[in-house]
């Protein structure tokens, strides 16, 4: 195909090119993520109906969908409790009732015509006296029976205001364009398709929208049919390409090679009250090697809760400082930013490093002065929340940006943050840290643009947190445990997570709980921390708790990430059945940070749903964040694990990372080949699957 023709074909054709699609329908389609004619074809059926045969009424089975044909032998409108229309249909083998709860006068008239013949499709149910179909699709037959469909009938994911027949008509139109105007050109090179045994994209799409009646329905419904896998593969490939392209673009930027003499880092390590774990040493070496390069480091550091990522961050920051540059550490919450700041003060302050905390509380002149010291380079390491750094903060020479607790953000936010770090032509090195380990397959797909380091070893002496699930009518026993623990000089957390979709209510619930616990445990010093307190109040409470001035800290999930108080050995989580696995594991990670035995009590309100039961059991059995992440993926699905759901980011349309994980390696291999040998196919594939609107990280 000549280049000009190709590029013409690449132009996205809006869905309005299809006959019958006006602005109103286009708007409804947009809600399904359908913008172009190609999108119509990539909007695949959820399942299929078999209308390729007529089932005799005597052969019907309750619970299955079926198509029948028969003669109306009677109909009535009853008013028993609810008003409904009943119609009896008879064929040579038996009778069945059609039941309608709402109906138009025209329908009433139609079903009243005794002797008329109908063809109906619907789900068969066991009624009071006979089998029934509720609201079947019916069509009147005049004269000879028309032939039955020789294809399976697709059922599309849809919305309330979009009928299946509209979507079927639309796909009919788009399938014509597929044939006549090469709507979905093939971008996979023939050799690759041959090697991976992939059918053409047009063949796959045609098959999936209109499979022949003898197609294997079970295989189609389970998403394992080769046609569907062909498209899933291409989608995974497009995502790989998009992330790889992004990575390449970043790699082509200049970064300051950090070639300091290592003296500061050395002194830092010598002054630490502990020795680095083997894993920390290995990861630091990986980071240090990246930092000497004139290209930006793009590294993801995964380490379970408590594996000691902060020390690694500090050592990395020192690399920047000893090479004459600045470093910034960004945390998702003020609470965590402050804690990092204090840690850094402890560790680096004594080495003469200038550290600044950019907090929301710093206003007016003080804020201006700090920003000036950042811009002049007087501040060597800055700590703050992402939000604060998203504003207009200018650095003299930002060499390294560290993002903590990445799991709170989706892919798109991560990429947006990355851009914030850029200063002029130069791009700082980037270290992204997360405590939610991502299963390998997922990491390959969501973080294909990053190198990965893993802290797979906890500091010595840690003991697993003993976890129990307790129904909340046994709350008194739990309170007794707190009394015992605190009497022994330990501290405890009581977490009240969000149960209403409102922060106000969450904070109120925590305040009420704190009051009650204070009344029941008069000998204990009880503190309260929640998201609606002023930063100063939060800070005071946390500092008091950390210094041992409080025995019991009642908190909302603001303490979910990062908070580090080694003497706290007991955690109670209320309404644990409402929380996700990753979040519970994070919360539990607040204890078990010292050398004593710690426990976590998950209070739940029975009865437990099956999935809540599975979550609580997983936590009871398992302390390993990687294993928990794997099970989380099974329970929740990848969209949630990666945080795309919360952030409204785009998830996969056809592929399912769990079901199709065996395709990921092939997709990565194909991405290599395409980037090397067929670079002209890259852009169209990305555009087809990821679209122009939701492009990953504009660079
Ligand atoms: P996370 O990876 O969850 O961010 P932190 O960095 O908060 O973990 O570390 C948890 C605790 O372990 C901190 O109190 C930290 O000082 C301590 N720690 C980190 N590394 C070591 C080590 N090598 N030996 C002993 N304690 C360590
Ligand atoms: Mg941390």
TrEMBL record:
Give GO terms: molecular function aspect only: 3'-5' DNA helicase activity; ATP binding; ATP hydrolysis activity; DNA binding
Organism superkingdom: Bacteria
Encoded by which gene?
recG
Task: List the keywords (alphabetical).
Answer: ATP-binding, DNA damage, DNA recombination, DNA repair, DNA-binding, Helicase, Hydrolase, Isomerase, Nucleotide-binding
InterPro entries in alphabetical order: ATP-dep_DNA_helicase_RecG, DEAD/DEAH_box_helicase_dom, Helicase_ATP-bd, Helicase_C-like, NA-bd_OB-fold, P-loop_NTPase, RecG/Mfd, RecG_dom3_C
The answer to whether keyword DNA repair applies is yes
- Family the entry assigns: Belongs to the helicase family. RecG subfamily.
Question: Under what name is this protein listed?
Answer: ATP-dependent DNA helicase RecG
- What is this enzyme's catalytic activity, as reactions? ATP + H2O = ADP + phosphate + H(+); Couples ATP hydrolysis with the unwinding of duplex DNA by translocating in the 3'-5' direction
What's this protein's function? Plays a critical role in recombination and DNA repair. Helps process Holliday junction intermediates to mature products by catalyzing branch migration. Has replication fork regression activity, unwinds stalled or blocked replication forks to make a HJ that can be resolved. Has a DNA unwinding activity characteristic of a DNA helicase with 3'-5' polarity.
Q: Which GO biological process annotations does it have?
A: DNA recombination; DNA repair
């Amino acid at each position: 195909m000549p280049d000009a023709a190709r590029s013409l074909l690449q132009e996205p054709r809006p869905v309005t090119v299809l006959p019958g699609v006006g602005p109103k329908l286009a708007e409804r389609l947009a809600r399904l993520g359908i913008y172009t004619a190609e999108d119509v074809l990539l909007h695949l059926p959820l399942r299929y109906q078999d209308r390729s045969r007529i089932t005799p009424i005597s052969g019907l089975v309750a619970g299955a969908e079926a198509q029948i044909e028969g003669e109306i032998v009677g109909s009535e409108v009853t008013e028993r409790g609810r008003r409904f229309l009943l119609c009896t249909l008879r064929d040579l083998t038996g009778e069945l009732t059609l039941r309608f709860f709402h109906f138009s006068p025209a329908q009433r008239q139609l079903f009243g015509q005794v002797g008329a013949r109908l063809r109906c499709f619907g789900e068969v149910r066991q009624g009071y006296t006979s089998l029934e179909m509720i609201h079947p699709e019916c069509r009147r037959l005049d004269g000879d029976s028309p032939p039955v469909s020789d294809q399976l009938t697709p059922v599309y994911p849809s919305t309330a205001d979009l009928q299946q027949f509209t979507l079927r008509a639309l796909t009919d139109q788009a399938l014509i364009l597929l044939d006549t105007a090469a709507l979905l050109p093939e971008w996979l090179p023939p050799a690759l398709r041959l090697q991976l045994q992939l059918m053409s994209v047009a063949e796959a799409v045609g098959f999936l929208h209109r499979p022949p009646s003898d197609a294997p329905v079970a295989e189609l419904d389970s998403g394992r049919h080769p046609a569907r896998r062909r498209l899933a593969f291409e989608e995974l490939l497009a995502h790989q390409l998009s992330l790889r392209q992004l990575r390449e673009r970043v790699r082509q930027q200049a970064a300051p090679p950090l070639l300091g003499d290592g003296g500061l880092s050395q002194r830092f390590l010598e002054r630490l009250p502990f020795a680095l774990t083997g894993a920390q040493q290995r990861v630091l070496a990986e980071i240090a090697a990246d930092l000497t390069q004139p290209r930006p480091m793009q590294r993801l550091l995964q380490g379970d809760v408590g594996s000691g990522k902060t020390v690694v961050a500090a050592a990395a920051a020192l690399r920047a400082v000893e090479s004459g540059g600045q470093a910034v550490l960004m945390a998702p919450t003020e609470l965590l930013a402050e804690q990092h700041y204090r840690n850094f003060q402890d560790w680096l302050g004594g080495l003469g490093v200038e550290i600044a905390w950019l907090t929301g509380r710093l206003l007016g002149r003080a804020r201006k002065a700090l920003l000036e010291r950042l811009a002049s380079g007087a501040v060597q390491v800055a700590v703050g929340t992402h939000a604060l750094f998203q504003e207009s903060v200018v650095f003299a020479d930002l060499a390294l940006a560290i993002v903590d607790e990445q799991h709170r953000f989706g892919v798109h936010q991560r990429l947006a943050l990355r851009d914030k770090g850029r200063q002029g032509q130069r791009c700082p090195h980037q270290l992204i840290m997360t405590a939610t380990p991502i299963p390998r397959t997922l990491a390959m797909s969501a973080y294909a643009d990053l190198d990965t380091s893993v802290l797979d070893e906890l500091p010595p002496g840690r003991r697993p947190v003993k976890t129990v699930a307790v129904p909340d009518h046994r709350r008194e026993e739990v309170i007794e445990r707190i009394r015992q623990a605190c009497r022994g000089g330990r501290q405890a957390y009581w977490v009240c997570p969000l149960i209403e979709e409102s922060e106000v209510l969450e904070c109120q619930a925590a305040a009420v709980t704190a009051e009650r616990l204070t009344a029941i445990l008069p000998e204990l010093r009880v503190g309260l921390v929640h998201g609606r307190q002023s930063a100063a109040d939060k800070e005071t409470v946390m500092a008091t708790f950390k210094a041992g001035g409080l025995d019991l800290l009642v908190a909302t999930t603001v303490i979910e990430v990062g908070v580090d108080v080694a003497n706290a050995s007991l955690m109670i989580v209320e309404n644990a059945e409402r929380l996700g696995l990753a979040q519970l594991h994070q919360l539990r990670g607040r204890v078990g940070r010292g050398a004593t035995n710690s426990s976590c009590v998950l209070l739940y309100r029975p009865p437990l749903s099956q999935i809540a039961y599975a979550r609580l059991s997983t936590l009871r059995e398992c302390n390993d964040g990687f294993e928990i992440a794997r099970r989380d993926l099974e329970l929740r699905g990848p969209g949630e694990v990666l945080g795309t759901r919360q952030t409204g980011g785009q998830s996969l349309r056809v592929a399912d990372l769990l079901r199709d994980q065996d395709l990921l390696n092939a997709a990565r291999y194909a991405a290599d080949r395409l980037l090397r040998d067929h670079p002209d196919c890259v852009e169209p594939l990305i555009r087809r699957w990821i679209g122009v609107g939701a492009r990953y990280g504009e660079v």
